[in-house]
Amino acid sequence: MISYLKGTVAGIHRGTGNRVTLILEVNQIGCELQIPPRMERDLRAGASVQVFTHLQVREEQPVLYGFASAAERDLFRQLIAVSGVGAQLAISLLDTLGLQDLVGAIVTGNTRMLAKTRGVGSKTAERIALELKTKLAQWCSEIGDLALLSAGSSPALCEDVEITLLALGYTSSEVMEALRALNADPSLSNSPDAEEWIRAAITWLSR
User: Which residues contact 190 (CB under 8 A, 6 or more apart)?
Assistant: First the structure.
């Protein structure tokens, strides 16, 4: 299983049905990933990016889906586990509502908001809310933290720092507390350097 890819944006192609394909060059290999259309706004040719992935194996061919954050990817996986929700519908839900609003709509049972997505009828919206409400209720606070942190820094940077700190043995609550504190520091909040954030977080956690 491929958790994420780091590489250079080689190209972006728009296909039928609002499908957007990112060509990501990783170690001189061009990888095709289908991404939510809204993600395209933050991508520039030649830019170095980290994309969180989900591999779906179908009879015709495997498809690799890409997301700006691990949280988006994980929510996508929750959505496609719902009966009647395929990958394209899950992508549309993420693209139409965004991560925070989509989780909020599911947790609060706001089927009217879910039905704003093309292809999502009232029965499908009710099924999504019914099957995922309990699973995502605890996650709702984490999404709030991510939205807060992303106000000053990019979601991808926050995810990169979080993954590294978790690998070092810190708990999720410790990591979120450190990132909240560091995001309030104007000298650091606009820095795109993940290593600088990691060093500062370790220093803060070791205080």
Answer: 152, 153
The widest CA-to-CA distance across the chain, in whole angstroms, is 54
pTM of the shown model:
0.68
Q: What is the mean pLDDT of residues 116-133?
A: 92
If one counts every other C-beta atom within 10 angstroms of the C-beta of residue 177, the result is: 16
What is the spatial distance between Cα 165 and Cα 158, in angstroms, rounded to a whole number?
11
Nearest Cα to Cα of residue 157 among 37, 1, 6? 6
Q: pLDDT tens, 159-202?
A: 677 777 777 777 766 777 777 777 767 666 667 777 888 888 88
Torsion of CA 143, 148, 151, 153, to 10 degrees: -80
Distant-in-sequence, close-in-space partners of 134: CB < 8 Å, separation ≥ 6: none
Using CA atoms in the order 134, 103, 143, 189, what is the torsion angle rounded to 10 degrees?
Answer: 180
Residue 197: how many other CB atoms lie within 10 Å? 25
